[in-house]
Description:
Blueprint: E1 26-30, E2 33-38, E3 44-47, E4 53-58, H1 64-75, E5 86-95, E6 99-109, H2 110-122, E7 129-132, E8 144-149, E9 152-157, E10 162-166, H3 170-176, E11 182-186, E12 195-198, H4 205-215, H5 232-277, H6 287-294, H7 306-317, E13 326-332, E14 335-340, H8 347-357, E15 361-366, E16 372-377
Parallel strand pairs: 1-3, 3-7, 8-11, 11-12
Antiparallel strand pairs: 1-2, 4-6, 5-6, 8-9, 9-10, 13-14, 14-16, 15-16
Amino acid sequence: xxxxxxxxxxxxxxxxxxxxxxAGGVWTLAGDRLIIVSAEGxxxxxxxxxxxxxxxxxxxxxxxxxxLAALPFAIEDQVAEPVESLHLALGxxxxxxASPNRYLVGVVRAEIMAQWAALAEAxxxxxxxxxxxxxxxxxxxxxWAVELRDGxxxxxxxxxxxxxxxxxxxxxxxxxxxRPRIHALGEPLDSTLPVGISTPDLRDINAKIDIAxxxxxxxxxxxxxxxxxxxxxxxxLGWILAIGGAAHVLIAGGxxxxxxxxxxxxxAETRALVAVSAPGTDLTGDLKGxxxxxxxxxxxxxxxxxxxxLARVSAALNPLAGSIAVRAxxxxxxxxxxxxxxxxxxxxxxxxxxxxxGRIQGQATASPDGSVRITARAA
Length: 379
């Protein structure tokens, strides 16, 4: 006898498939094949809830990594099979306000999950999410949301867990669960079942998939979805960006070498000029300080602070030379202003640290467009 969730599947011509690797949309799993439900929306495979056990598990741990590590121990008393043979998927909080440490957990036999993942990959859906189909139902405020579909009864409880049973067994299952309030969806239920409310689910398939995937995606751990290969166009764009980035680095490096070469040449020219203007001057040591001391500072002429300040700022920013591209320099009174091209998000903070390390009174301010303005004041 065929499983109930395959009861409506007709052996014969296959539903037209989207050719890999462009397959997308929403698919449903029926036996050993996938059937397209909707060509719209993100790639998603709906798996039969009969093969997935949904649990609400308390995991009072501070981060996801620790919750995942504790998960096998938290559910071992609720499953009949060895935990090692199971695939465990951690979902969202079932009630963030009332029970912030309780999470939805999906439990599938690992061999079944491997078969599903292989089937999805063969269909060109290696990057698709996998969601138990009961999670497409709207969660009720209390009791059960019930939908009859193809001889199956899908049941989603108020605590976020759910299950699927043959429609013929819904009544006895409801009795065993303590007769919870029923919110009926879709096909009419058996007249023996007291329906509290009956309304259709008017959400489109994309809205259902978004909520269901956020609740629980089985593609985790060893069965995590793989990213689809990039198309030729995107791959080409990636190469262009990579080459452009490499070229930018090379240009920045070339600029730094050129600036160093210019600085060395200017230093040699300055030494020659000092040797002519002030014969006998000792030029060993700090050339900048020696030249500054030689500048006139009479009562009628203020000392030239621009060059020393620029030199100090340049020396402080030297470790960041490859990251800074100056587009304008201004000096007004005793304030030096450098306007720099946009750079890394933390460039302004790194420049400020460099100025502080160089004991320079200044600051670096990032503009909304990413450019950075450096201001430094002469001591």
